[in-house]
Design goal:
heterodimer; A: alpha/beta; Rossmann fold; 4 domains; 6-stranded mixed beta sheet; 20 strands; about 25% strand; B: mainly alpha; MetI-like fold; globular
Chain lengths: ~525, ~290
């Protein structure tokens, strides 16, 4: 018998804006001792399906229309809130994407860990603490005697996720539901957490549901993969079947969207457009001096896409912003087309901004919610006097054509668009002034996988069409490999390695680069 | 739909859009209509008022509503309807002008402090703190002593006090907004700080500001009544709603209509303002539009 068997589950949402079927008649089962991955893009219903099983969806607006979810023979959907509460956390535990929001910032890790033991299992505090320490060791936290008295903010993101996993495991659940547990983490940390989950699952012989938007992430660990699209279960199969012989076109599309190619080195003679020399950008906090960028020198050649790769805290975004002088530079010079950008006064800088632009990571935050597409795109054109009030509308429409937005959307506001469309607007804004140089700061990391591929292709096309030089900042090596001509690897504000994409990926020199490359998920199945 | 959106909206701005949405909100339109008719009546009062504002009839005394005096008369035999109409001129003027002053100073002050930050922000906000701490009465009395009694000064004085809270609200809003990437995007486009504040920050901070404004107008009207009551504002025979209410309250047991009718005028204004304010807030929030 399956550990959990869901049949004909349907969840609807009734909101002001209408009625939607979030989960449409899906059936699946989770076996003991297996990892079942549920894959889908945002809005596919993957999280809703799992949350509805545990009664974690607010009802209304959600309503479970039909279905059965047998967990060890009992139907979860028929249980009262009290019965569910007894099961949640004890037999079925959850791990979430952002561990910081799930931990109480005012309680030490130890207190939070032993709470369920002391209250539900009536263990004495001493025994509970001993048990908690064992668990911390099990999830890979060293020196539990001291760390157990720390507060959540004293841990790094990866460590916090380990603590969350320890908390989820403390009552020895039979089923663990992990909702995008590694999405917020750096790639090397992600690899560690994935390994940890797989190890714990084998050791404890429990069932795991792993929810993710990224097929590559689950490529190494999943036993069974379920693919969802718009509330429907479109494909189900074991890992090899999905990766080698996907039947449904949507699954094939997802697989194709995983960037795996290496861009070939360009044969053009290098002609530097941007030259960064001994750049230092320090931040002063009350307690310490943070050397975000510490003596970095490199150049970006005309027409090339330079990838800047590193984990969080490596200073990659800071470099991009320093070049554009969106942040005050501590030391060093940035030369753009022969002009020392660092020496420009306010007025000179504003004129220069026309020639160097930026694309931001989060298209939900980088567009003014009160400005329509027209307002957003017309602003730079009018500001720099490129178009007059009479001609600007035509220019905006042309720009919309270029970035692939339907002309009819011109009066719409950002909230009416999907993430990918918003990023197109943001790209249009950056290109409006026909800049020579663009800093793209993680432009696809907030997007769904299939959309990611579209936006990357758009950037490559526009790069050629507009003759752009680009600094492409990203934490995602697979993405950078796909788009960049040359790559710089950063670690803690310093350059670790620099080289053409091909050279870097096939023959990395430094051990840190090797670790990074090794952490790219799904290599075993995607290599071919 | 395509054609309509393309041609119907040449040069739409946030405000035109907001107006289009506001027109769909019945309650807000009702509020706007009511407020508009009050303002209109106030403007043409000298020509349409049934009696002169200072005409007394001591023999008549206080009478309940009748055919000759629709809303009754006060103890001096003055027509209450006339009083309310003339009082509305003062009250509405104080309410709108003082609030406009507060709005202008408060929003610019708060926006600049919040956007520039650092030392400028610290100094600007300490000034606000000091003014907060200053006893309001002493401030007004000082102004009156130095400049003499003057209606315009009263507007300014009230406005100069009411902007403090507005500035704090605005600063808080701007501080959260300026960390968002769209502000960074505006900087990287080359926009000057003043343009960023005007085009990107203020429109996004309007919601709480509008709500607070609709609350400020009635409180300013009552503040004027309080000052007038102390002899610092309007003096009889000139009157305002606030004054009428405070006199009415004294005699409410014998002559209840003297409290009820001025009270209704103020309450209706307050309702109208709240409906309109809620409607405006929703209309300016582009995310709320369903279509």
């Amino acid at each position: 018998m399956s550990l959990l068997s869901v049949s004909n589950l349907r969840v609807d949402f009734n909101t002001r804006n209408g009625h939607t079927i979030a989960v449409n008649d899906i059936s699946f089962s989770v076996e003991k001792g297996q990892i079942t991955a549920i894959i889908g893009e945002s809005g596919s219903g993957k999280s809703v399906a799992c949350y509805s099983l545990l009664g974690l969806l607010p009802q209304p607006p959600a309503s479970i229309e039909s279905g059965q979810a047998l967990f060890e023979g009992q139907d979860l959907l028929q249980m009262s809130e009290a019965e569910l509460r007894a099961i949640r956390g004890r037999d079925i535990a959850m791990i979430f994407q952002d561990p910081m929001t799930c931990l109480n910032p005012f309680m030490t890790i130890g207190d939070q860990l032993i709470e369920p033991l002391v209250y539900h299992k009536n263990l004495s505090e001493k025994h509970a603490l001993a048990r908690a320490k064992e668990l911390l060791v099990e999830v890979g936290i060293r020196d539990p005697d001291t760390t157990i008295n720390n507060y959540p903010h004293e841990f790094s993101g990866g460590m916090r996720q380990r603590v969350m996993i320890a908390m989820a495991l403390i009552n020895e659940p039979k089923l663990l539901i992990a909702d995008e547990p590694t999405t917020a983490l750096d790639v090397t940390i992600q690899a560690q957490i994935l390994k940890l989950i797989a190890e714990l699952q084998t050791k404890r012989d429990i069932g795991v549901i792993f929810i993710s938007h990224d097929l590559a992430v689950v490529a190494d660990i999943a036993d069974q993969i379920i693919v969802m699209e718009k509330g429907l279960l479109v494909e189900r199969g074991d890992r090899e079947a999905i990766f080698t012989d996907a039947q449904h076109p949507y699954t094939q599309k997802l697989l194709a969207a995983i960037p795996s190619s290496i861009k070939e080195a360009s044969t053009r003679a290098p002609e530097p457009l941007v030259r960064v020399e001994h750049l230092k950008t320090y931040f002063e906090t009350p307690s310490q001096l943070v050397k975000a960028v510490d003596d970095v020198s490199f150049q970006i050649n005309k027409g090339e896409i330079l990838g800047l790769v590193g984990e969080s805290g490596s200073g990659k975004s800071t470099i991009g912003r320093s070049i554009l002088r969106l942040l005050p530079i501590t030391e060093g010079t940035v030369t753009f087309a022969g002009t020392d950008v660092t020496a420009l006064d306010k007025k000179g800088l504003r004129g220069m901004r026309r020639r160097m632009q930026m694309i931001f990571q989060d298209p939900y935050a980088s567009l003014n919610p009160r400005m329509s597409v027209y307002d957003t795109l017309a602003e730079p054109l009018l500001l720099h006097g490129i178009e007059s009030r009479k001609t600007v509308e035509q220019a905006v429409l042309t720009l919309m054509d270029d970035v692939g937005l339907a002309r009819a959307f011109i009066r719409k506001y950002p909230h009416e668009f999907s993430g990918g469309q918003r990023q197109r607007i943001a790209i249009g804004r950056a290109l409006a002034t026909k800049p020579e140089f663009i800093v793209a700061d993680e432009p696809v990391s907030a997007l769904d996988v299939t959309i990611q591929a579209q936006i990357l292709d758009l950037l490559l096309d526009l790069g050629n069409q507009y003759g752009l030089t680009m600094l492409f900042v990203s934490h995602d090596l697979a993405v950078v490999r796909h788009i960049a001509d040359r790559i710089i690897v950063l670690y803690q504000g310093k350059i670790v390695e620099e080289g053409s994409s091909e050279a870097l990926f096939t023959n990395p020199q430094q051990s840190y680069t090797k670790t990074l490359l090794h952490s790219i998920p799904g290599q075993s199945l995607l290599a071919g | 739909m395509t054609d309509m959106t393309l041609q119907a909206e040449k040069g739409t701005s946030l405000w035109e859009d907001a107006w289009r949405r506001l027109k769909k909100n019945k309650l807000a339109l009702f509020g706007l209509g009511l407020l508009g008719s009050f303002v209109l009546i106030a403007l043409i009062t000298p020509w349409i008022a049934p009696y002169a504002y200072d005409a007394q009839n001591l023999d008549l005394g206080a009478t309940p509503p009748s055919a000759a005096h629709w809303l009754g008369t006060d103890i001096f035999g003055r027509d209450l309807l006339t009083q309310i109409m003339y009082g509305g001129r003062i009250s509405l003027a104080v309410g709108f002008v003082a609030t406009a002053v507060a709005l202008f100073i408060g929003v610019s002050w708060g926006a600049i402090a919040g956007y520039v930050g650092g030392r400028v922000d610290a100094v600007m906000m300490r000034i606000v703190d000091i003014l907060y701490a200053l006893p309001f009465m002493i401030f007004i009395v000082l102004l009156m002593v130095v400049f003499g009694r003057n209606l315009l000064l009263l507007f300014l004085a009230i406005g100069a006090v009411e902007w403090l809270t507005m500035a704090r609200i605005m600063r808080g809003q701007v501080q959260t907004l300026r960390k968002q990437e769209f502000v960074e995007a505006a900087i990287s486009l080359g926009l000057a700080p003043a343009t960023i504040i005007r085009r990107h920050l203020i429109p996004n901070a309007l919601g709480p500001i509008i709500v607070y404004t609709t609350l400020t107008i009635p409180s300013v009207m009552l503040l004027e009544a309080f000052l007038s009551f102390l002899g610092l504002g309007i003096q009889p025979p000139k009157t305002s709603w606030g004054l009428l209410i405070s006199y009415g309250a004294e005699t409410m047991e014998e002559y209840p209509w003297l409290l009820i009718f001025p009270g209704m005028a103020l309450t209706l204004t307050l309702f109208a303002l709240n409906f309109l304010g809620d409607g405006l807030r929703d209309a300016l929030d582009v995310r709320r539009s369903a279509d």
